[in-house]
Write a structure and sequence with these properties.
Helix content: 25-40%
Number of domains: 3
Strand order of the largest sheet: 5-4-3-6-2-1-7-8
Bound molecules: adenosine-5'-diphosphate, magnesium ion
Structural class: alpha+beta
Radius of gyration: 28 Å
Number of strands: 23
Shape: elongated
Length: 591
């Protein structure tokens, strides 16, 4: 007898669930997408204990009759495609007929559904893929699906669920993504019996963006004049020039209603910002790309997060065109912009820029200058020529010459010219101090005289809540503070990292959250985690560095730097100090 056999249906569904249902948030995504496909005008999402205990999605969409309600639990049962031709032009979010049976096979599942025209609806009770009961139900028209005890029968998967707070944050992120794509639908979200979001239907995307992310965020965006080119329509909102964030969670790019992460879309946006945005920053955006469904293949990723474009070149060029056209229409916001958006490495350090929170909107771009100015020797050669005397105050003979463009300190030392980049030097010094401090506990924080209240999306709030101890280690003490009128929530900030306290609170929080979020799952505070945290906070805090006032302070900074463990580079490898040796100068001035 052969060894190969066909898997029973339930087992096959559980296997499929491995791909479709990564975590509770995936269930929320599939159920919400089904509701959207069913033409719902109103969708309510409820969950308990990070979704592992209960997820319930209720809609007022088309509903199903009894036959369909039973059929939709069969594998590969879908109303959305019929023949393979249809696969080439999918206009709905679902099409595989896989989600419901997969979810039902790994949970205690209840579906009740009723079409408007039917007198009674149907309730189906399923456990671990087995149908236990089918009966009439008296629910309102539409569909309600309850998923309880996710993975109760697949202990291996249940073990992989993260903490309740982390899973909740993922669910809210998913919820907000779909809500932003569908302003025309009203959404409610209840978490552990508390309403956390209520979004009224609107025909204005700006209203939905504001409801979710707050007025401040919206102000940083500019509306795109709708654009149509080469069969692709683009609409939405794009960051103003100079606005950037270090993670991409505020870049929401949709292709035919589906949120997609793809360099084909994000790179052109980044390219449009070259010259106004530092490396490593991404412009926030909410953009919708609409095209003939046959121009894009959505059947390439288990969770449909990726697509394949028939002609990526067209998409790229239209995305670039869209971003640029948005920019032609907009100037940076007065007295507003670089708070969050400016080049994090090289904004000018001037007394004004750190004393007032309303930074000037002007800043130079210095990538180039920095590069061409780097007539440096290798760090080792600097080290050879300075450290022998530099580490011993009595023989240290540097002479302070002055500052250059508010960013560099110039010194003469044994006929060499030393150029110190203030921010980089501070970053190195803070980093080493933070590392020591973190091995003993938390970084120092400074209490605010009055707590500051910031607007924040619920997903961001949930992330902050889930990573509170990490943020506290960084010196940031903040907690969610009730809900706003619509959906956007507030964060109450009580204390900030002491060394960053000259910066606006909003900037500190946004940069900390963004940068820590890019460290994938936030670091545990082992040695590596401490290094990552120290590096992040030192970079942020150094942005608040002021010019040393006077020669004494300048020399002190140089001396401190030279006494550091690794004086010549920042934790990220940027040079802190550049030396031009006498020979180099002579060469330059020779005929
Ligand atoms: P797919 O969405 O890929 O078709 P699903 O397993 O998610 O597969 O759903 C199967 C079918 O069940 C759908 O094609 C649709 O006909 C029906 N269905 C699922 N959810 C709903 C809902 N909320 N309202 C109406 N019909 C639904
Ligand atoms: Mg579906």
């Amino acid at each position: 007898m052969g060894r190969i056999h066909v898997l029973p249906d339930i087992l096959a569904s559980q296997v499929a669930a491995g791909e479709v249902v990564e975590r509770p948030a995936s269930v929320v995504k599939e159920l919400m997408e089904n509701s959207i496909d069913a033409g719902a005008r109103r969708i309510v999402v409820e969950f308990q204990k990070g979704g592992s205990c209960l997820i319930r999605v209720t809609d007022d969409g088309s509903g199903m009759d009894r036959t369909d309600a039973l059929l939709c639990l069969e594998r590969h049962a879908t109303s959305k495609i019929r023949e393979s031709m249809d696969l080439a032009a999918i206009s709905t979010l679902g099409f595989r007929g896989e989600a419901l049976p997969s979810i039902a096979s790994v949970s205690r599942f209840r579906l009740s559904s009723r079409r408007r025209e039917d007198e009674a609806g149907t309730l189906i009770v399923v456990s671990g893929g087995k149908i236990l009961d089918v009966e009439d139900s008296g629910d309102a028209p539409g569909t309600r699906i309850e998923v309880a005890d996710l993975f109760f029968n697949v202990p291996a998967r249940r073990k992989f669920l993260r903490g309740e707070l982390t899973e909740s944050a993922h669910i809210l992120q998913q919820f907000e993504t779909l809500a932003i794509a569908h302003p025309e639908i009203s959404f409610t979200c209840r978490r552990d019996e508390t309403e956390v979001l209520r979004l009224a239907a609107t025909d204005d995307l700006a209203v939905r963006i504001r409801d979710l992310h707050g007025e401040e965020f919206l102000k940083r965006l500019v509306a795109l004049a709708p654009l149509e080119s080469q069969g692709v329509r683009v609409s939405g909102w794009m960051a103003r020039p100079g606005e950037g964030r270090s993670d991409r969670s505020h870049q929401m790019l949709f292709v035919n209603g589906r949120m997609i992460r793809s360099p084909i879309l994000s790179q052109p946006l980044r390219e449009a910002c070259d010259g106004t945005l530092a490396k490593g920053l991404h412009p926030p955006a909410v953009l919708f790309f609409e095209m003939d469904p046959s121009a894009v293949d959505c059947n390439v990723h288990p969770a449909k997060r990726e697509v394949r474009f028939r002609d990526p070149g067209i998409i790229r060029s239209v995305a670039l065109q869209a971003a640029r056209s948005a920019w032609e229409r907009s100037a940076p916001l007065e007295g507003f912009s670089p708070r969050v958006g400016a080049d994090p490495l090289f904004p000018p350090i001037s007394p004004q820029s750190w004393k007032s929170s309303a930074h000037s909107t002007q800043y130079e771009l210095d990538g180039q200058m920095h590069d061409s100015g780097r007539v440096a020797e290798t760090p080792e050669s600097i080290s050879n020529s300075i450290s022998a005397s530099g580490r011993d105050d009595s023989t240290f003979l540097a002479r302070y010459l002055g500052t250059l463009s508010g960013r560099y300190l110039l010194f003469e030392e044994k006929e060499s010219l030393l150029m110190l980049e203030i921010r980089a030097a501070r970053e190195r010094l803070l980093y080493e101090r933070f590392l020591v401090r973190l091995s003993q506990g938390e970084l120092e924080s400074q209490h605010l005289l009055l707590p500051e209240i910031l607007e924040m999306s619920s997903a961001d709030l949930a992330w902050i809540e889930a990573h509170r101890s990490l943020l506290q280690a960084a010196g940031l003490f903040a907690e969610p503070f009730g809900q706003g009128a619509h959906g956007v929530g507030s964060l109450k900030v009580d204390a900030v990292p002491a060394d960053a306290a000259t910066l606006p609170v909003m900037e500190i929080v946004v940069r900390l959250v963004d940068e820590l979020r890019t460290l994938a799952e936030a670091p545990a505070l082992d040695r590596q985690g401490r290094e990552a945290l120290a590096s992040t906070v030192s970079r942020i805090a150094a942005a608040g560095a002021s010019l040393p006032d006077g020669p004494e302070a300048a020399l002190m900074l140089l001396r401190q730097l030279l006494a550091a463990e690794l004086p010549y580079v920042t934790p990220k490898g940027r040079p802190t100090l550049v030396q031009i040796a006498p020979g180099e100068l002579q060469r330059r001035f020779s005929a």
